[in-house]
Amino acid sequence: MQFIDLKAQYAVLKADIDAAIQQVLDHGQYIMGPEVAQLETALAARVGVGHCVTVASGTEALLIALMALDLQPGDEVITSPFTFAATAEVIALLGGVPVFVDVEPDTGLIDAGRIEAAITPRTRAVMPVSLYGQVPDMDAINAIAARHGLPVIEDAAQSFGASYQGRASCGVSTLGCTSFFPSKPLGCYGDGGALFTDDARLAQAAREIRVHGQSARYTHTRVGVGGRMDTIQCAVLLAKLPRLDWELQRRRELGARYHALLADVNVGLLTVREGRDSVWGQYTVTVPDRPAVQAALKAVGIPTAVHYPRPLHQQLAYERFAPAGGCPVAEQLAQQVMSLPMSPDLGEADQDRVVAALAAAVGRRG
Fold it and tell me: E strand or H helix at 318, and its extent?
């Protein structure tokens, strides 16, 4: 069984993807070819914002967003400790200070009720993470940020296609940043990412930053990076877009089916809040004695993963930013979370196998 079945997806889309790649090979515009603008137009319309800027990766999207906001050394950015390292990495790379706020125990999302207390005169932005495919409480987060005059950057690397109160992930804050890493809800065949905004000034800054700060060829208006998304990767995503709605709906259905099948199994299920959905970038549960459970599933051919085994404030690279008292909820989740196979092409028979093996490993509720 595959943890994420990208081969099955390609088999369905092979003719369209091969043709899209061949078109790029034929015209030869491998950098900033016409497919780049085509994809940006399509994605901006899908998210419902004025601007989409494709970039080299989800990490690059976060970095360029902070650069567009002119983050300076010593500036603080409030974020979650329960996320992939890239979230804090980009803050530290610019000399900023990641300020970690603990998460909700039943979602793993940043606890909006704790954000305001973390704001100081040095706070420059708030960067919530849309974890496992669900958007956090953006209305509350945006309201807090607005009271303090702060921009909000949604780290939506795992949630492209999800919705929050009828609005699309990536379109619910000042800037939204996503990843097109192959395993994501919308994935290319290499690295890729995008940032989204309604702010024309920020969009223009991002476009310049991704090409080494150029406002025109060899005219370097600002400090930038080599952050463009390759034309071939944009072409792959364009070929995938017609199937995306089906894939997202299938993810929701499989997530709901996992929830139903696991209702009497001795695992903890994540909550999907009212007014939101999840596209289950990862389908994650909490389990007792995770190493033993993973070993039991591996023994019957079922792969699992851990997202994430150690919160960022306990990582060597970022422990200097650890808040006093730590982040106990994130620390507990890190000991218990385990992700199960999930992709739009996961068959229900395989899903049944996963549930049966998990129930055998942990037992059922009495």
Answer: none
What CATH class is the domain 244-362? Answer: alpha beta
For helices 34-47 and 231-261, angle between their N-to-C axes, nearest 10 degrees: 30
* The two structure tokens encoding residue 11: 């088999």
User: Rounded to an integer, what distance in angstroms lies between the CA atom of residue 169 and that of residue 185?
Assistant: 12
Q: In b/e form, how buried is each residue of 7-30, taking b as 16+ CB within 10 angstroms?
A: eebeeebeebbeebbebbeeeeee
Going from N- to C-terminal start, the domains of the chain cover 6-237, 244-362
Annotation: CATH topology of 6-237: Aspartate Aminotransferase; domain 2 (3.40.640)
Cα–Cα dist 321/96, whole Å: 11
Segment 208-224, tens digit of pLDDT:
999 999 999 999 999 99
CB 55 within 8 A of CB 228: yes
Q: How far is CA 78 from CA 102, 112, 116, 148, 153, in A?
A: 10, 11, 10, 13, 10
pLDDT tens, residue by residue, 106-128: 999 999 999 999 999 999 999 99
